[in-house]
Amino acid sequence: MSRPAVIPVADRVHARRWLVLAILSGSLLLIAMDTTILNVAFPSLVADLQPGAVEQLWIIDVYALALSGLLVTAGALGDRWGRKRLLLVGFALFATASLGAVAATEAWHVIAARALLGVGGAAIMPTTLSILRHVFTDARERAFAYAVWAAVMGGGMALGPVVGGLLVEDYGWQSAFLLNVPIALTVIALGAWFLPESFAPRTGRWDWTGVAQSIVGMIPLAAGIKQLGKSGLASPLPWLMLALAAVVLTLFVRRQLRLAHPLLHVRLFTSRAFSVSATVLFLGMVALGAVLFLLTQWFQYAQGYSPLQAGLRVLPAPLALVVTSLLAPALMRALPIRHVMASGLVLMATGLVLPWLAQDGDDHLGYPVMAAALALIGFGAGLATTVASVTLMAATPNEHVSGAAAIEETCYELGAALGVASLGSLAGALYRSSLPASAPAAAHDSVGEGAHAAQEIGGAQGASLLEQVARAFTHGMTPAFAIGSALALVAAAAAWAWIPRGIRPTENAH
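Structure (tokenized):
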């Protein structure tokens, strides 16, 4: 009696590669939505737990600080310990932290839960790309898998407010965290069964000094960027944080260059394709992060929509982003990479500058113009970031894929944070300068305070104040978008000039 044929492990992994992509995409959608879903849940959370001003800042910021600080370490740890193992541990942390947030009765409970969510997110995000690189061995299929990854990442960030609005309006702020639990448990169950394990064997001892330097450098970098948006350019605190980050990260880079087996292979940046792709991702997220942040406020405070209504009106951007992300691999096969990437950035720049050009002399801006701008931004961002992601990963040797994934995630995270800090601050300054001196002092603090003051006053006087607030915020927001457009054009010029002409990330090496 003959034995049944034994299917090699590599063949079994290849056979279920599309199932692996589905599992990883579902897991990434959860992480992407979690970066923005709190924007909708935050007002009701504050009303319920009544955190102080400092506690509110920590609730908002601690997730990004923990995530940014641990991405490099998590990427290297996955190489040594196992990427599948680290991914599943990350989701276990994510589920535990979400349950902790749901059960919170004090502000510090939510802060601790958000910090643990950041740790879990850092474990999850780089490993998804690393596993995809291991599973998809054909360059064309791998490019499509990365395109799906980029579509889920960008679309999930923009869908967060929509999903959050649906949940929070009916079930309270806890539902924004409770949503994570069944999804995380499902991913753990499916991942334990279907995901393959992979390693990137490294000799030498674990670089504890490098770990400490990367964490101590990245946390003040992220905190300094965020603090710029809160305290402004004149405050010394963010500059002290950024100076500390610059010193420590310089020491980190110099140490990594000396080591035979570094925690992060920083020489990846010597590749023009890699460095330009990272720059495109970073500048693209600066613009996209600012757009999502400012438009959420504009729709809710200046236009008077509920969180759910505001989220629905942002939908042209994520829908367009998903479409072009999935079309990008075909365009990359038909056209030179630099043409596709630069064209996406020019489309994005057009959408960003459109509201500034279309507003009338009274700073009025209708939704049809904004919907068209959002669609153009989504089309351009989907095309540019997908091509940049595929190119960045294709330019990375297999043994350094986790480090490249950590760098890519850092570009997403810090780019969005810098967009909120810089362009958001500019919009706020222009808003305050555009308000009449007769407006209440509270209205000069922020557009949210202005809308609240108008509601408190009520009647014709309150309606007049709200009109002034809406006009002033539109006047401040659209020039910030125009500067984002200029950044996108700078990235387009860099892609056009410096991406190597012959690079073909959708073709297998011969």
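The two ends are 43 Å apart (CA to CA). DSSP finds 19 helices and no strands in the chain.
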